[in-house]
Design a protein that fits this description.
Elements lengths: L8 E11 L2 H11 L3 E6 L2 E5 L9 E5 L4 E9 L2 H14 L2 E5 L8 E5 L5 E5 L31 E9 L2 H12 L2 E7 L5 E7 L7 E5 L8 E7 L4 H12 L4 E7 L6 E6 L5 E7 L12 E3 L4 H5 L9 H4 L13
Parallel strand pairs: 1-4, 5-8, 9-12, 10-17, 13-16
Antiparallel strand pairs: 1-5, 2-3, 3-4, 6-7, 7-8, 9-13, 10-11, 11-12, 14-15, 15-16
């Protein structure tokens, strides 16, 4: 019998990353990706892309090593928040309630089986553009910035896990995520899975950690919507002294145009030139890649990904090279 679907989680709302080079990381997102700094508090800087509707979608927090601070998800209602918290407490994975943070109200924090911190909230602050950033395009929160090659909105996050399947099942059963695509090993366990609660192919992706570590970050992703912008930002990155790890190219999984670069703090950032496709079918059947199909799953066209792409994550471990 098919389980009743859960529609309590609406979207990926923001991400916090750690950086040992706070000001350099902020400059990368501001000057290269055209994001705005909207607030500072303590050791954290709050940033946004120009089509993000909420106050912020990225928090960069100073830390002695790079990595993931937390993932934030917004629920579909106050009642949905309470329902999910009740289920999470039954599972015994809760950290507890916080009063709120810059840009949102009270939130419930918990950990995935692999140790990644996630928070759920409902009350959120919508961005209000000051006069010099207002636009006559009324369905856009602010004027398009005129620096760098501006990204438009937050797209997804990709996390690494020591064991993929327990974390995939946790997102499905505790939060209502749906597996849209997956790469399977010969024994049909997940090598990687792409999950969403929205129409996107993925809000969260999970990949097996090649080093067998727990709780690490593979990358965060912001969206352009135009493949041409990947070429534009590639020129800017190279001329600014950054090394592009991979791309531009196109994945088979998600059909997305991509470029990968590591920001100064050490975290990998993916830039989407196109979202691939969106899912509207309520009875979507998970796409499964295995065996001979895998060659086209990772790269549809473009150069192959380097081996360090599958090993490098943050925090950095001694078994992997350190990115400059």
């Amino acid at each position: 019998m098919t389980k009743e679907p859960i529609f309590d989680v609406a979207q990926l709302a923001h991400i916090e990353i750690y950086s040992p080079k706070l000001e350099e990381s902020v400059a990368f997102f501001r000057e290269i990706l055209g994001m705005d700094e909207v607030y500072r508090q303590g050791k954290s800087v709050y940033m946004r892309a120009y089509e993000d509707h909420y106050h912020n979608t990225l928090i960069i927090t100073e830390n002695d090593e790079a990595g993931l601070g937390h993932i934030a998800l917004r629920t579909t209602s106050p009642q949905a928040l309470e329902r999910r918290v009740a289920e999470l407490e039954k599972l015994g994975c809760g950290i507890g309630w916080i009063d709120g943070d810059v840009g949102h109200g009270r939130a419930y924090q918990f950990r995935t089986p692999d140790g990644h911190k996630i928070e759920l909230f409902w009350d959120v602050e919508y961005y209000q553009a000051p006069e010099d950033k207002k636009t006559p395009l009324l369905n856009r929160p602010q004027r398009r910035p005129n620096r760098g090659v501006p990204v438009r909105r937050l797209d997804h996050i990709n996390i690494l896990a020591k064991e993929t399947n327990p974390n995939v099942e946790f997102l499905e059963e505790a939060l209502g995520f749906k597996v849209r695509e997956r790469i399977l090993a010969d024994d049909n366990t997940d090598i990687a899975a792409w999950l969403s609660v929205s129409n996107l192919v993925h809000d969260i992706a999970i990949m097996g950690d090649a080093l067998g570590e727990e709780g690490r970050l593979h990358h965060i992703c912001y969206w352009y919507g135009y493949p041409q912008h990947l070429s534009d930002v590639a020129d800017l990155l190279i001329e600014s002294g950054y090394e592009i790890e991979a791309g531009p190219g196109k994945h088979g999984v998600t059909q997305a145009y991509f470029l990968y670069v590591v920001e100064p703090g050490g975290n990998r950032v993916e830039l989407f030139g196109d979202p691939g496709y969106q899912i509207f079918d309520p009875d979507w059947k998970t796409i499964e890649w295995k065996g001979k199909d895998l060659e086209k799953a990772i790269i549809w066209h473009g150069s192959n990904l380097p081996q360090e792409f599958f090993k490098y994550g943050t925090p950095v471990r001694k078994e992997q090279p350190v990115k400059a």
